[in-house]
Amino acid sequence: MLFQLDGYKALNPERKALAPILEKLSADLRKVGHVTDSTVQQMSPLDRTALSRELRRILTSMQSVHDALAHELRFLNQINVNRFRQ
Hints:
Oligomer: single chain
Helix content: 55-70%
Structural class: mainly alpha
Distance between the termini: 16 Å
Order of helices and strands: HHHH
Shape: rod-shaped
Radius of gyration: 19 Å
Strand content: under 5%
Mean pLDDT: 85
């Protein structure tokens, strides 16, 4: 390796595309977006548990996407961009 590239994982051609994942998460959030404190209080315990699990799944997926984006943002720093211009 000639020089160290921050966020080199962003160059991996086999990395997952993040846009489709974000679109699905956005759609999933829209499905539960109508829920308020009062509607949760009116739900049965089983429905509350299902909602809680769905929100936990969405949050976990968003954290994974956030971590993946962190690599890409490190790759796009000014030093790396300048190296490619040379």
